[in-house]
């Protein structure tokens, strides 16, 4: 079983990106419009070719700072949007009831990780896919 790690770094945080009631963070690549950038956390992938191959599946992990999260659900559009736009919504919840966002990764904390990680400019993100 091969594991791939695709790395990105937070380069900007929109004024309305963090701090809402929902345990969710919207990520976008640097091509985001100003309007989108105001509500998003902007990420830059260190390797565009790796980004273009990025596929996430249930059971994969996302590491944010030193905290790791297990992917409990992958929305239908999540991998394609990550590959092309660097866009995905990260939803930090153990509950999968109700309508699920199709552009989202649902994440459950691992090993004492924060329920909701902190995002700052420079925060490292690692998408860990077990293929």
From TrEMBL:
Superkingdom assignment: Bacteria
Signal peptide (residue range): none
Example of a GO MF term: protein-N(PI)-phosphohistidine-sugar phosphotransferase activity
Pfam families: PTSIIA_gutA
A Gene Ontology cellular-component term: cytoplasm
One of the GO biological process terms: phosphoenolpyruvate-dependent sugar phosphotransferase system
Xref: InterPro entries: PTS_IIA_glucitol/sorbitol-sp, PTS_IIA_glucitol/sorbitol_sf
Listed name of the protein: Uncharacterized protein
Provenance organism: Schleiferilactobacillus perolens DSM 12744
Phylogenetic placement of the source organism: Bacteria, Bacillati, Bacillota, Bacilli, Lactobacillales
């Amino acid at each position: 079983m091969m594991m791939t790690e695709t790395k990105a770094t937070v380069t900007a945080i929109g004024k309305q990106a963090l701090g809402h009631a929902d345990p969710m963070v919207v990520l976008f690549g640097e091509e985001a419009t100003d309007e989108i950038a105001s509500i998003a956390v902007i990420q830059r992938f260190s390797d565009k070719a790796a980004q273009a191959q990025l596929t996430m599946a249930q059971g994969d992990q996302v590491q944010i700072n030193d905290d790791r999260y297990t992917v409990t659900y992958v929305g239908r559009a999540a991998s394609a949007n990550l590959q092309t736009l660097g866009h995905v919504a990260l939803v930090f919840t153990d509950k999968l009831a109700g309508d699920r966002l199709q552009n989202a990764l649902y994440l459950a904390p691992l090993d004492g990780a924060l329920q909701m990680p902190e995002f700052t400019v420079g925060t490292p993100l690692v998408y860990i896919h077990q293929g």
